[in-house]
Amino acid sequence: MLALTMGEPAGIGPEISALAWQALRRDGPGFVLLGDAGLVSGVPVARVASPEEAEAAFPEALPVLHRPLPAPVRPGRPDPANAPAVLRSIEEAVALAREGRAGAVVTNPIQKAVLTAAGFPHPGHTEFLGELAGTGVPPVMMLACPELRVVPVTVHEPLARAIARLTPELIAEHARITHDALRRDFGIAEPRLAVAGLNPHAGEAGTLGHEDEAIVAPAVAMLRAEGIAATGPHPPDTMFTALARPGYDAAICLYHDQALIPIKTLDMEGGVNVTLGLSIIRTSPDHGTALDIAGTGRASPNSLIAALRLAARLAEARRNAA
């Protein structure tokens, strides 16, 4: 049984949770929603007291660990008064997974600006989960779909600052964590990593910038010296093509858009956010709260369904590896 957090209650989370249950109720994976049962409409709801009770209820109703919200919810209009409940939903889901009562955590999208206004100190889910379920290494974001896995070394920060932060050690650290996760959770015995270059044509031997020679190439050399099958720096304009993708198991990218543009172009609805380096399995749909369409019936549950299915597969792989 997976633990699904409420996410931003004024977003599309309640709607796609109900639609995901409709799609998965017969063949699973089963999940329990931690949130306000009153926000779920259009499907039968079972208020349950535990994940164990949810498992029996799942085929006939969406099981909800009812956590009432302090403020009314208006679709598309988040209320900071509900921010503490959103965070408690994440904390409780993580606790259930750490106790072995939930196989994995799947998170509905949060509205970061609203949480920040309420005093949330983290840039997003990834860093918060690192605090709740860290293993001594930095939590790392992976975006995955059937055709591509990408890992951004820098994430939610201005591009100039992201580039200034890049070092061979930072790139190698993200690659090591990715390598270990591919072996343990994805069942890939000898992962192959492709490291993207920073400049056009990966610097073209220094004529288009020296960062690839000074920062990226040393990181690749470090990884290869450790026995990790890493290559690069690869020209970013060609490494995501259909001919190039079969040559690696994950792409290590240097900044947010370098990673997210190719995967969202390939599979916007099937992309899944996976947090690596945690003591638990955590996935999330690869989209935001979609406040503009919340409550309109236009939201697609496909990315959430993909996140639930992947979470179940990764949890099983981790159990088998253990």
From TrEMBL:
Pfam families: PdxA. Its main location: cytoplasm. GO terms for molecular function: 4-hydroxythreonine-4-phosphate dehydrogenase activity. InterPro entries: PdxA (IPR037510), PdxA_fam (IPR005255). The active site is located at the dimer interface. Homodimer. This is 4-hydroxythreonine-4-phosphate dehydrogenase. It comes from Sabulicella glaciei.
